[in-house]
Amino acid sequence: MSPLSVLKGEITLVLNRRLNQQANTLAAELQAQRTLSNLHSIELGNEPEFYEAGFPIIPSSGWSPAADGASQWSWFSALAPTLGDIFQAGGYLQPPRWSTAGLAPMLGSAINNVKTFSGHSYSQSACGGASTDLPSLMSHSNVLRLKIVLGLAVCGGGGISPTFGAGLWIVDYVLQAILNHVDRLYLDQGTVGNCQYCWWGRFTTGAPFYGAAFVSEFLGSDGRRLIILDNGTPPIASYAIYNSAGAPVRLLVYNSNFYDGSGTRSSVEVSFSGGGIPASGTKTANRFTGQNANSRVDQGGVVTIGGGGTFDGGCLSVGTQTRESVGVSGGLLSVNVQASEALLVYL
Q: Where is the Beta-glucuronidase C-terminal domain (predicted)?
């Protein structure tokens, strides 16, 4: 565990529950607390709905959401006196049958031992009859008054995740998660030898990492309030971030129209007024773009931030980002954004 202690971010440790070896799990958790000063929470079991007959955790009556709820209640109640209120509950992939909303009432007083709730959301599960619907998944967060975590999220399956389009998805998904009161997003990095979702390591730094860097620049260290400026139905998304003084500091426009590299690339003009935009003057902008939505850095595709900014194999920024000038006239700020592209405007 010691290599994890040097990471800058906080760690959520997922430990086994299906073998029903509570003493071993407790020993591992105590070791984690001794070793990891950055330990945030502990999740007991990954996607327990997939536990199969024959696993020691499964009672004679069989496995069901109710059986798992009773199991999570039992483990939290037994371990919390030693470990504290550090648990991340849930870890489900398949709502609504297996869901945070269903689990919470089953926990009874053990809900006081829960630090966060986790749900897994793989976007490709929206195909084939399943549905990954972030707003409905998260709508209970205000009722529970506990923090909601997307314990595993991923930008599509193999052949989708490395694309520039997936990088754009990261931008929009992170912002929608914030608006839906999600406290943390854990993006699946895959595993050795089967790394369909990797942002780095298998080849070079992939396009999804670019998206994470771009949306981080938009949110910034001074961002305190996020507002969506569209009604959620058009393919053009617009967001504004405000500082602690209540002033808008940046705008983001995302054109989600799909461009596959063939034909003419369409574009839209989006205009803003009011909300701190001056009557006249000049602002600057940074553009997140690629040759097309299917572009992959590992296959020679060009993906850039600010015209020339890229990342090397160690995720370090290389090249030069150049901001564009955006004119303001008559109190109107207008920008042009191509299909499969995003633009960040600094106010």
A: 239-344
Looking at residue 204, its pLDDT comes to 79
pLDDT value of residue 135: 46
Query: What are the phi and psi torsion angles at 175 (to 5°)?
Result: -70, -40
- Sequence-ordered strand ranges (E) for the chain: 11-15, 39-44, 87-92, 114-122, 147-154, 182-187, 225-228, 236-242, 248-255, 267-273, 281-290, 303-305, 310-311, 317-318, 324-329, 332-338, 341-346
Looking up tokens 């509950």, which residue turns up?
Answer: 89
The residues, ordered by sequence, that sit 6+ positions from 316 with a Cβ below 8 Å of its Cβ are none
Do residues 266 and 235 touch, judged by C-beta distance below 8 A?
Answer: no
State the fold for domain 225-346.
Immunoglobulin-like (2.60.40)
Two structure tokens written together for 277: 């935009």
CATH architecture of 2-154: Alpha-Beta Barrel (3.20)
Structure tokens at 251: 């705008």
Q: What are phi and psi of 191, to 5 degrees?
A: -145, 170
Q: Quick check: helix, strand or coil at residue 95?
A: coil
Query: Measuring CA to CA, how many Å separate 312 from each of 74, 200, 212, 319?
Result: 47, 10, 15, 10
Q: Where are the domains of the chain?
A: 2-154, 225-346
**Is the backbone of residue 329 left (phi > 0), alpha (psi -120 to 50) or beta?**
beta
Tokens of 268: 């839209």
Q: Max alpha carbon distance in the chain (Å)? A: 73
Q: Cβ atoms within 10 A of the Cβ of 321, count?
A: 15
pTM (2 d.p.):
0.76
Name the DSSP class of 336. E
Asked if 259 and 292 count as a contact pair (C-beta separation under 8 A), the reply is yes
Q: What gap in Å lies between CA 181 and CA 336, rounded to an integer?
A: 30
Burial class (CB in 10 A: 0-12, 13-18, 19+), 323: middle
Residue at token pair 């854990």: 186
Q: Which two tokens stand for residue 68?
A: 């798992």
Residue ranges, the chain, pLDDT below 50: 126-144
